[in-house]
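Need residues for this backbone.
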């Protein structure tokens, strides 16, 4: 079992190196590694900086809702959390973060001001589906939007049941997300 785990790690490392090699080839940069015995290896692949354009939100969606909205973003991936935060912070929403399903449950219990939850399905410690099922009995009127990469119809049906009020698939379209939040908290 340990050997399989080790081989899987090596496989993912090689996939990452190959992907970086391809990016570097097309962007005229280099890859190098620094290793220390017993400490590990660090791979470097600097890319030329490219500024990210600010997400444009239609004027209709920019209108503030009559009251302040607090959103719990249950997301363990830092990049996705920052993207989601960028999407909604222009609307002056209050943002809270849970990095796993258990934190989401605890925050919903301890923060009655949470108006809507954007729940990632695949998270450590406890997945989003299990967390939503735990939250709903204590906060039955709290809207929870499932966010997932799973796009199969059977998965969509699973996430549109009693635990979730709505569903959004990754990659998340900012306009669609804001429309769903506005619909659920209006």
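Answer:
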């Amino acid at each position: 079992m340990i050997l399989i785990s080790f081989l899987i790690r090596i496989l993912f490392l090689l996939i990452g190196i190959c992907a970086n090699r391809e990016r570097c080839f097309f962007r005229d940069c280099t890859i190098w590694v620094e290793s220390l015995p017993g400490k590990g290896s660090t791979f470097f692949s600097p890319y030329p900086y490219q500024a990210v354009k600010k997400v444009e939100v239609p004027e209709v969606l920019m209108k503030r809702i009559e009251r302040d909205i607090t959103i719990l973003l249950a997301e363990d991936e830092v990049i996705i959390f920052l993207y989601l935060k960028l999407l909604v912070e222009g609307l002056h929403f209050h943002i809270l973060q849970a990095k796993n399903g258990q934190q989401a449950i605890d925050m919903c219990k301890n923060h009655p001001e949470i108006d809507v939850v954007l729940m990632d399905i695949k998270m450590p410690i406890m997945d989003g589906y299990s967390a939503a099922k735990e939250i709903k009995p204590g906060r039955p009127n709290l809207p929870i939007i499932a966010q997932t990469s799973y796009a199969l119809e059977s998965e969509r049906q699973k996430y549109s049941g009693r635990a979730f009020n709505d569903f959004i698939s990754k990659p998340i379209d900012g306009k669609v997300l804001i429309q769903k939040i506005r619909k659920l908290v209006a």
